[in-house]
Amino acid sequence: MSPDASVPASTTPVHDYLSRQAPGATENYLVVPRSLAQSMPLRWQQVFVGLLADLHDAYGHLDWPEYRVVPSRWERLVDLDEEQLAGAGYVAELGPSGELEYRDADDQPVEAPETLQVLAPVADPLPDPSDGRVEPRPAAPL
């Protein structure tokens, strides 16, 4: 018996894989950048399209919303510009003492804003699909 045969296969492999830190995975969603998926080898794309078709066949009857994906990173609140603050649901204004005061979406003051990390919108560091093929990293040798 091989060592792998003694360990039962998981019945939740997608959950297991995405429960650890993985690029594009959150608690509720998995984002696959189109430019990178379209740059994968042909066989990979064929398998992926088949899997997507299976998913859409199985759940196409549900009322899917449109999704807006916003590239974001965890940043210190005090390092954000005005646009990022707004995107993260905060504002910064000069207070009566002339110092910056941060407020959240409920207009409540933020205590110790220099220690608060928030998910803030950033420029997308990944190529746009219209940029063409992105060369994948070579596979590790066997």
Architecture overview:
There is one protein chain. The protein has 142 residues and is of the alpha+beta class. The protein is elongated. The two termini are 23 Å apart. It is built from four helices and four strands; from the N terminus they run H-H-H-E-H-E-E-E. The strands form two sheets. Strands 1-4 form a two-stranded antiparallel ribbon.
Main pleated sheet = 2 strands, antiparallel
Oligomeric state of the chains? single chain
Number of helices: 4
Q: Unreliable stretches, pLDDT < 50, 5 or more residues?
A: none
Helix content: 25-40%
| Class computed from helices, strands and strand pairing | alpha+beta
> What is the overall silhouette?
elongated
Total strands: the figure is 4
Main features:
single chain; 142 residues; alpha+beta; 13% strand
SSE arrangement:
Blueprint: H1 13-19, H2 34-37, H3 42-59, E1 72-76, H4 82-88, E2 91-94, E3 100-103, E4 117-121
Antiparallel strand pairs: 1-4, 2-3
